[in-house]
Amino acid sequence: MRESRSELGRSVSPPEAASVSVRSPGRFRTLLNEVWSYRLSYLFIAPFMLCFVAFIVVPVLAAVALSFTYFNAIESPRFIGWQNFQYLISQDLLFLKHALPNTFKFAIIVGPGGYIAAFLLAWLISQLPAVTRKWFALAMYTPSLTIGIAMSIVWLPMLTGDRIGYLNSVLLRLGWIDTPQLWVTDPSYLMNAMIGVTLWSSMGVGFLAMLAGILNVNKDYYEAARIDGMKSRLQEIWYITIPSMKPQMLFGAVMAIVTTFKTGAIGVELSGVNPTPAYSGHLIINHIDDFGFIRFEMGYAAAISVFLLLLMYASNKLSWGLFGSKGDE
Amino acid sequence: MNALRSLLKLRRRPRLSAMDGFQKLLTLLLIVLSVFMLLPIVYIFNHAFKPYHELFLYPPTFFVQEPSLQNVNELLAVTARSTVPMIRYLFNSVFVSALAVLLVTGVSALCAFPLSKHRFPGAGFVFAAILLTLMFAPEVVQIPRYLVVSEIGIMNTYFAHLLPLMAMPIGVFLLKQFVDQIPDSLLEAARIDGASEFVVFLRIVVPVCMPAIATVAILAFQNSWGNIETSALFMLDDEMKSFAFFLSTLTNNLANNVAMQGAAAVASLIMFVPNLIVFVILQSKVIATMAHSGIK
């Protein structure tokens, strides 16, 4: 973001800026002139911006506006101030006892866990010769293609509760369990099943970005470090690889956060019931669906989604702090 | 050219030229891990061609022993009984995905070029907004999206399938980062030769950015091919819904149900294979693009 802001700064070329510094109406007219002279640029970005505004900006703003209202999709929205948020953080037991802790547990393991796993895998793969590298990258990325739809059909037979399930049949034969376990319908297992399946499919775009980032680190740095006496590969990773690929690390982190928070259907898909048994797999995103599309309390659902957006924004800020580049690099 | 140079660098970069002990160990480890990662994938292929008596065998078999097309027939039979034939769902999906790939890449490239190369007033703000929405999942604001779609009167049309997908911030972001690599002097030279901005875009920017465009095409394809949201929320008639949606109705409640497992497996295979093929073909381009994906 910093870079783009400095670009905006550069956009006003020095002579023009000097000539308009006297009075504000002149400055306004110069701006209009400048806008007009760039009309072609605006034409270029128009198609995307129209869709962007209609399907992202307006919905986000509408969600914020609706979150302060009571809206049941039949009557027109009625302004009720902070009530939705007050109810959300003080009285909504389903939210406080299940959705929130579940989301935190899920997000903390799948987010940073998946992210670190993706980095380690990318690094391990980058240590191999180019010929084999490509095939391993493909093998790791393929599971992320099943996200959403193919997920349930792939994993259900693995985890079904009777002895036909693959996991049960293997564990039974090894003698680790005596009776088949209900991996996806027992509340005490469902969350772990969700985390496992999501981790399995988490080597997506962010993983590829990190792999590319590692491969692009200037080789000379490693040489120089070796001459200076750097011994272990761990030191190389910490002092050279990670600092030189900070931008890709940040991109990977943003992707990890987005996929983590938007994965919600997985619990419903695995257990086959909505809401999940004893709310064990109930995440914030399921809570939104519950109020929005089942109970039709749109205002309240909007308040929950605003809360989720803020949560995503906060986690992004955190990763920005870790990997954001300071100034121009 | 920077973009080209880094492409070449990716091709030949033997960090340690010969396989040493560490690499051999690593290869072994990664092979084991890959097998684990790919197990469920191999499994769908097998499951789809298992005849009924094999599907529920105990102990369960992993590999199919007598492959049959029984499940394919069952899938066709399911839809034969319903009012909308399966081929209609498939047509919707193919049609929407093809158009979505074309439109998303076109629209994103058109937007990325001025964002990167024209310093028009507001460019910084627009890019910052795109960067910000990169962090948001549209799933979160489904309800207002539904309201927007119904307000502008495109419910139950192909527009409602397409337009929401066209707002793909990650596409513009990746392309913009890639266009940044094109030296200004190259564009300037073309302009001096009398090329209009559109010609510059079409003749220089698009060819140089082909890897990034391919990547955005993959992402757009994955987005639309597996999309259930637009069918579930914006389509009223069954014949407007997509194949992914149809599959989700098949797999709903599969956890407590044994019927239709075979048919669902075949349908999943139909969903999954195009994704895989598209990715395998364009894979090298993706890695080249991702090298520039960093957020600075």
Automatic annotation (TrEMBL), chain A:
Membrane topology (UniProt): Multi-pass membrane protein
Pfam families found in the cross-reference section: BPD_transp_1
GO biological process, one term: transmembrane transport
Intracellular or extracellular location(s): Cell membrane
GO cellular component, as recorded: plasma membrane
InterPro entries in the cross-refs: MetI-like, MetI-like_sf
Record's keyword terms, sorted: Cell membrane, Membrane, Transmembrane, Transmembrane helix, Transport
Chain residue ranges for the region called Disordered: 1-20
Keyword Oxidoreductase: no
Similarity comment text for this entry: Belongs to the binding-protein-dependent transport system permease family.
This protein's name: ABC transporter permease
Automatic annotation (TrEMBL), chain B:
Transmembrane segments: 21-45, 89-113, 120-138, 158-179, 200-221, 258-282
Location of this chain's protein in the cell: Cell membrane
Coiled coil: none
Main subcellular location of this protein, as a coarse class: membrane
Gene3D superfamilies noted in UniProt: MetI-like
Family annotation (Pfam families): BPD_transp_1
Domain of life: Bacteria
Membrane-topology descriptor: Multi-pass membrane protein
Every ABC transmembrane type-1 domain range: 90-282
Gene Ontology CC: plasma membrane
GO BP terms: transmembrane transport
Keywords of this entry: Cell membrane, Membrane, Transmembrane, Transmembrane helix, Transport
CDD domains: TM_PBP2
Family: Belongs to the binding-protein-dependent transport system permease family.
Protein name as catalogued: ABC transporter permease
